[in-house]
């Protein structure tokens, strides 16, 4: 929040590109010194994923979804997420078939997905929808879902419960609730 106010104050002079560039540089400096929760707020799903990767050594890489790579076609749509990032986890990938993670449509089966929405209500609604779909499939498809504010963590059902608990703990620490 401080970074946003600082950036807005820096842009209010309206005197051209140099002032705007200084505001962007100052905002970036504040973001780089922000707490993990503040940094995650500034960077959406990508920031949360990067902060989680720093806490969980089995996360080997993160990939930000785009309109072209979003397997759910929800990115940027009404009540859909505003950003989403896939977390690749080596324990899930070694325990599961990795073909799905080698495609252009990676998803939660690669380890986990962070989805960030415009509102907490949209995040809750998405979690409830996923629960209703997966609970109807019996044990065929499961995942561990956790909501924190506007962010939703979707961890692969292939994870051991203890691994999912590690993800949940890191997510709640990073997302701020």
End-to-end Cα distance:
16 Å
Largest beta sheet: strand ordering: 1-2-3-5-4
Number of helices: 6
Q: What overall form do the CA principal axes indicate?
A: globular
Could you give the count of β-strands?
5
**Mean pLDDT metric:** 76
Describe the protein's architecture and organization:
The protein is an alpha+beta fold. It has 2 domains: 1-33, no CATH class; 36-175, no CATH class. Helix content is 47%, strand content 19%. The chain is built from 6 helices and 5 strands, in the order αααββαβαββα. Strands 1-2-3-5-4 form a 5-stranded antiparallel beta sheet, with helices on both faces.
Give me the secondary-structure topology.
Elements: H1 2-11, H2 17-32, H3 36-55, E1 59-64, E2 81-89, H4 90-95, E3 111-117, H5 120-135, E4 143-148, E5 151-156, H6 161-175
Helix pairs in contact: 1-2, 3-6
């Amino acid at each position: 929040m401080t970074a946003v106010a600082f950036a807005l104050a820096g842009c209010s002079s309206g005197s051209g590109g140099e002032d705007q560039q200084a505001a962007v540089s100052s905002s970036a400096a504040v973001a780089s010194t922000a707490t993990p929760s503040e940094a995650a707020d500034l960077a959406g799903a990508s920031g949360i994923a990067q902060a989680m990767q720093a806490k969980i050594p089995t996360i080997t890489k993160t990939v930000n979804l785009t309109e072209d790579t979003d397997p759910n076609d929800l990115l940027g749509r009404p009540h859909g997420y505003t950003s989403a990032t896939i977390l690749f986890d080596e324990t899930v990938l070694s325990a599961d078939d990795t073909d799905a993670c080698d495609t252009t449509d990676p998803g939660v089966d690669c380890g986990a997905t962070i989805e960030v929405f415009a509102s907490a209500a949209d995040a809750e609604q998405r979690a409830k929808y996923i629960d209703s779909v997966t609970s109807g499939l019996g044990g065929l498809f499961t995942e561990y879902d956790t909501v924190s504010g506007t962010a939703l963590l979707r961890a692969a059902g292939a994870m051991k419960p203890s691994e999912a608990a590690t993800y949940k703990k890191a997510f709640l620490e990073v997302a701020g609730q």
